[in-house]
Design goal:
7-stranded mixed beta sheet; 5 helices
Length: 219
Amino acid sequence: MKITKYLHSCLVFELDGYKLLVDPGNFTFVEGLVKPDDFADVDAMIITHIHPDHYYPENIKKILAIKPMPVYTVAEVSKAMEKEGIESTVWEAGPHQLGPFKLEAISIVHEPLLDNPTPQMMGLVINDKILHPVDSMEDALLKYKEIELLIMVSMAPFANELRIAGFADKLQPKQILPVHDGYAKDFFIEARYKNYFAHFEKQGIAFHKIYKAGDGMDL
């Protein structure tokens, strides 16, 4: 499986020629480094929750105009999409299959934000190897302890590095792919990722210092 990062929390998972796009939010497109036509060969899209850094209807429409594809999301986002004229399918928690991807949709709680309502949010377990908890670090996710890859929030207004690293320390994945870094400057990301790398290396956890548009990893 190939995983490509398109800034912040926008990811493309590719397996056996099938491409799955997750969360093309506003931070992905704001600087013009990523454009909707970069996703012209994607087969399906998942939107995990309604926050604009994950759900950005203007460019979702542009992507779908270039390449029609099914969109899967939670009920709250689906209602918002309906108002935008975007067709979607609501996923309940449980197993789903998209091409070669075996997916488990999990209902999880977004970390609290200042003066902001808690959105409905969907996390993912992909092919029993990847945990994508999106913007959650709740203890219920520890049942996936020692999973192969954790897609980990690396910085956020709702958490500091002690909280973030503490969650990963408890989960003990074999590898970490950091996300949620699209609002920081490169020098800051590089400094923080150097810190994370050293922290997790002591535990034998591989931290992948991936943040630039189009960079990725194989699993």
